[in-house]
Amino acid sequence: MISYKMMKEAHIPAVARLERDNFSMPWSENVLQMELNNPLSLWLVAIDDGQVIGYVGSQIVPDEADMMNLAVCDAYRRQGVGHGLVCALLSALKARGVRSLTLEVRVSNAPACALYESLGFMVVGRRPSYYQKPKEDALILRKEWQN
User: Fold this and answer.
1) Interaxial angle between packed helices 81-95 and 110-118, expressed in degrees from 0 to 180 and rounded to the nearest 10
2) End-to-end alpha-carbon separation of the chain, Å?
């Protein structure tokens, strides 16, 4: 059974591996360690049978947050893990008094756009050439709620 937990130092190598597997400009273990130590950061992992199968990371500033990274192992895609991670993140943010979550997503990433739309995120802008490898615009999405 899949569980969602706060990321710990022991999870960093697996999260870094997912970064390398999923992104053209992956974050290093050192950067992930700095995020884990940052009091403004909130990172969660999805665990199945003791293995990290996905993660999501965010940073919080008083009552709003920015989702920075989300990835799921290939073998677990389209099984609700990404949805579960975002829902777990939203719950954790609400518990901390946060009232909105913003993120960027590649305009071509139809599965991610569909996931975020299903969770109530709205397009609030576009960042031209936000992604570099390959060069592509990002949609800016935002979800707001009352605590």
Assistant:
1) 50
2) 30
Given a contact cutoff of 8 angstroms between Cβ atoms, the answer to whether 57 and 38 are in contact is no
pLDDT tens, 54-76? 999 999 998 999 999 999 999 99
* Active-site option among 64, 104, 130, 131: 104
Q: Which of 4, 35, 55, 116 is catalytic?
A: 116
Distance, in Å, from the CA atom of 105 to the CA atom of 58, rounded to the nearest integer, reads 14
Q: How confident is the model over 79-132, as pLDDT tens digits? A: 999 999 999 999 999 999 999 999 999 999 999 999 999 999 999 999 999 998
Residue in 77, 134, 74, 131 with CA at minimum distance from that of residue 105: 131
| Tokens describing residue 85 | 């991670």
Residue 130 is among the residues annotated as catalytic for this protein: no
Model pLDDT, residue 32: 97
55 given a catalytic annotation: no
From the list 16, 69, 80, 77, the residue with the least C-alpha distance to 43 is: 69
pLDDT for the residue 52: 98
Three-class DSSP category at 54: strand
